[in-house]
Amino acid sequence: MAKNRKRKKKGGKAKEHDRSGGGGVNEHVSEEVSRTSNKRPSEEKRAAAGDYPYEVDYCDHFETPLRAYEDVLPLLDLVAEDRGRGGGVVKKGEESSSSSRRRWRDRIALYDPYYCAGRSAALLHSLGFTDVIHAKRDFYADVRNGAVPAHDALVTNPPYSSDHKERCIEFSVGGLRGGTNGGTAPTGGPGPGPGSPFFLLMPNYVATKEYWRQITASSVGGQGGEEPEDICYVVPPVAYEYDHPEDTGHDVPPFRSVWFCGLPSHLIRKARVLYSGKRSGGGDDAARLATSLEELRRWGAVPTVKRGNPKQRRKKRKQMEKEKEDGSNAADQKISEEGSSRGFEGAERKSKKRRRSARVDDGGGTPKKAQSEEAGGPNLLADHLGTGSGTKKKGNNKSGSRYRDAGGVRIKKRF
Asked: Where is the signal peptide, in residue numbers (predicted)?
């Protein structure tokens, strides 16, 4: 899925909001992309943006990875089974395992209104969802014109720029709780249909935003500051990596992504059991399901401090880069100093060794080595035979033993 964010014209206002949608790293990432990526769209690629029936932004096009869909697959299966059974209760003795739920995947219609390159539909097809509505259409125009297609659940990663997130959340929550958002529901009524679940992949900081709290804290369980009973969050075990259709920009955004999900409360109760079982059986590589902001904070899944504005973030980023550079320089200097110190100590040891070898033993200042040289040098052969005047090596005189004669010449082998 893709997200498209409008850029400002020189000396002018920002372009009209784009309708392209969902996959990964925008609003707060576009400046990162422009900073770190040298690749920019060619003139041909820029011209290709005219193929969309809405304004698009290069920096908004990031595709949702397969791993993200796999993390919410248990919830999608619950919705598929619930829709396939007509929302009825499973009868006693009727099988309702994960394997049996898979057979319902081709019986529900999933809707992704934000189009990038069509990859999201292909990925959902690969998971067994054959009815996926994902077309290059102006989503907001369809809402205005009452042309939103009938669907059983909305699964998307909306653009992160401008007010796309807020508009998508309003539409989705309205569809979950029976609001009239335009279009025709499977039941023939207005909107996407009462009780139509949604799955929105957005930055984790959205959970701390006031607009999220205001939109979701209504009618169903949102009274008196309580958490809504029809809202839950799926927290991935690792950061998602997003792909740009043109292979440029950041793969991993500077924030963690979280699935913001809305579905009937009886399905959320089932989901808690499913995800707790996955964690106990699959270890730390399984996604977790939370039902409150407090739970997200306890897990460290959302920011605990207020996010700074773009100017503050740029300043902090430069400061961190400077600290990193200073730390690297300090480490290099330390290594250099340690190397110099080791070199000085080695030179000092060599100097002491030379001084020791140059000591005199006659008080006249003539080194032993010089004395030997003045005497013509040592007679090594004579020393070996024990007859020379040179300094003999200790332990070489074997004369008088049963293996050598008086001159030290070997007369008998030892073995």
From this structure: none
**210, 281: one domain:** yes
Report the domain count for the chain: 2
Give the model confidence (pLDDT) of 333-383 as tens digits. 776 666 666 666 677 777 777 777 766 444 455 555 445 444 555 554 455
More confident of the two residues 140 and 348: 140
Domain range for 113 is 30-314
192/297 same-domain check: yes
Which two tokens mark 32? Answer: 């990162």
Residue 153 lies in a domain: yes
What digits encode the pLDDT tens for the residues 241-292? Answer: 877 555 555 555 667 899 999 999 999 999 999 998 776 655 678 999 999 9
Which pTM was predicted? 0.61
> Is residue 309 domain-shared with residue 372, that is, in the same domain?
no
Evaluate whether residue 328 is within a structural domain: no
In-domain check, residue 353: no
Instruction: Based on the fold, state whether residues 297 and 375 are members of the same structural domain.
Output: no
Q: Is residue 188 part of a domain?
A: yes
Give per-residue pLDDT as tens, 150-181. 999 999 999 888 888 999 999 999 999 885 44
CA separation for the pair 115, 120 (Å, rounded): 8
Based on the fold, state whether residues 152 and 63 are members of the same structural domain. Answer: yes
Residue 166 and residue 251 in one domain: yes
Q: Which two tokens stand for residue 266?
A: 């009886």
Q: Are strands 109-111 and 131-133 parallel, antiparallel or unpaired?
A: parallel
